[in-house]
Write a structure and sequence with these properties.
With 444 residues, the protein is an alpha/beta fold. It contains 15 helices and 16 strands. The chain has a six-stranded mixed beta sheet, with helices on both faces. The longest helix is centred in the C-terminal third of the chain and has 17 residues. The radius of gyration is 25 Å and the shape is elongated.
């Protein structure tokens, strides 16, 4: 056992104090991933870290595990400052992370072997963990012989055999099909409620709001760029939890409201006035955002965001960028967890192809900051041609190299569809479309 002394419910296991984390970018710049995080994880509770891509959820989890050192701030386990791997934690990964040349039992024994546990004791503890997680009979099987759900059970057994105070899980169900994931969540909660479960607390990273409400006692909502805590929401529901209960739906709606709403006490410039760094383009294709607007129109022009997510089987990271993109272009409005189509959105989705493209072009040129910047730069050029690298250099001042490229790729996708400009991969040139109304030699 990791624990030195018995733990009381509510006792602080891990204390995260003023954590910030930055990485060096490819261009020598500093990319801040976490900013001033304060968090306590206590015995007897399950905590979910919920947020969009870019909110630093996995980085925070690895900092708690002692796998990543913070740039500033401290992490304490049972009052002691971490200077390496956290001895009181074990982790379950999204990708299973099994050794394919080892049997189920050998994979489960890995952590015990690293701790120098004698072979006979390793075998006994591993077999107990395999039995606990429902894999008895598969001790001699290899990972390639197992389904995804069974491989993840091996991951759970490998973590639980170490009897950690704190079990860390990084989106452990997201690589599984819906039914398998639901089955494993149910079994995990059954184990958590039983007397044999060797762990005192769980911290799970997720971008699935219903999963967070289903599992957690507290949900920590993280904002992005850089990752920071936006809100902490208690989940005072008895287990097992009913997804169809009004209280469950109310909490789901509240979390959607937080994730889609503006940050408290912050001023976000309107798209028509914002710079490309102040209002980045959401990672959404034209087809994706158009499809969302079409569905909204088909359902009467107003839908509940959790309902449409469930109906389409979307995860939050899939759906919210489409919502953000359609809202940026004034095709829909977001009020808490409700989406409502706008007059412009209705015109866009009911028009013929050419008229629809014209509406998109007008909205993108006026309301998508990076598209607007590219159009103006092309109008200011001598011949309506500029190298894409020019825009990448500007974008790297506010984004990492990878995010800068993603921003430019999205802008090119939107600009091409709108017939505002084209991009030649061979020459790396962005060129104004002759029929776009962009007139080189003067500002658009």
């Amino acid at each position: 056992m990791t624990a030195q002394t018995p733990l009381r419910a509510g006792e602080v296991l891990v204390d995260v104090e003023n954590i910030s984390k930055s990485f060096a970018g490819a261009a020598g710049d500093e990319l801040r991933v976490l900013d001033d995080i304060n968090l306590q994880l206590r015995a007897g509770e399950i905590v979910a870290l919920l947020g969009r891509s870019g909110s630093g959820k996995s980085t925070l989890l690895r900092t708690i595990a002692g796998l990543i050192a913070p740039s500033s701030g401290t992490v304490r386990y049972r009052g002691n400052v971490l200077n390496g791997a956290n001895p009181g934690t074990a982790m379950v990964f999204q990708s299973f992370a099994l050794m394919p040349w080892l049997t189920v039992q050998d994979n489960v024994e890995l952590g015990l072997a690293a701790r120098g546990v004698p072979p006979a004791q390793r075998r006994e503890q591993a077999l107990n963990a395999i039995d606990l997680i429902g894999l008895d009979g598969f001790e001699s099987a290899y990972p390639k012989e197992l389904s995804g759900g069974m491989r993840q059970r091996v991951g759970f057994a490998r973590a639980l055999v170490l009897e950690p105070d704190l079990l860390l899980m990084d989106e452990p169900f997201s690589a599984l099909d819906v039914l398998t994931a639901e089955n494993l969540r149910t079994e995990l909660m059954s184990l958590w409620s039983g007397e044999r479960f060797p762990t005192k607390a769980i911290c799970i990273v997720t971008h699935n709001i219903e999963e967070a409400v289903l599992l957690a006692d507290r949900v920590i909502v993280l904002g992005a760029n850089p990752g920071h805590i936006r809100a902490e929401v208690a989940v005072p529901l008895a287990r097992p939890r009913d997804r169809h209960a009004p209280a469950f739906a109310t909490l789901v709606d509240h979390l959607y409201d937080i994730l889609t709403g503006r940050e408290p006490d912050t001023q976000v410039p309107e798209p028509t006035e914002a710079t490309p760094t102040a209002r980045p383009l959401p990672a959404a294709s034209v087809g994706g955002l158009a499809g969302l607007v079409e569905i909204l129109y088909a359902q009467g022009g107003r839908v509940d965001l959790p309902d449409i997510a469930a109906e389409l089987n979307f995860e939050i990271d899939d759906l919210l960028p489409l919502v953000d993109a359609a809202a940026m272009l004034d095709f829909l409005e977001v009020a808490g967890a409700d989406l409502a189509i706008t007059t412009t959105g209705k015109a866009f989705t009911t028009a013929n192809i050419q008229a629809s493209k014209q509406i998109f072009a007008e909205q993108a040129r006026r309301r998508a900051p990076l598209v607007r910047t590219i159009c103006r730069a092309l109008a200011s050029s001598a011949d309506g041609n500029l190298r894409a690298g020019f825009f990448l250099d500007l974008l790297r001042r506010g984004f990492s190299t990878e995010d800068a490229q993603r921003q430019l790729d999205t802008a090119i996708d939107w600009g091409r569809y709108a017939e505002l400009f084209d991009y030649d991969t061979d020459s790396d040139q962005i060129t104004a479309d002759p029929h776009s109304g962009i007139h080189p030699g003067r500002v658009a």
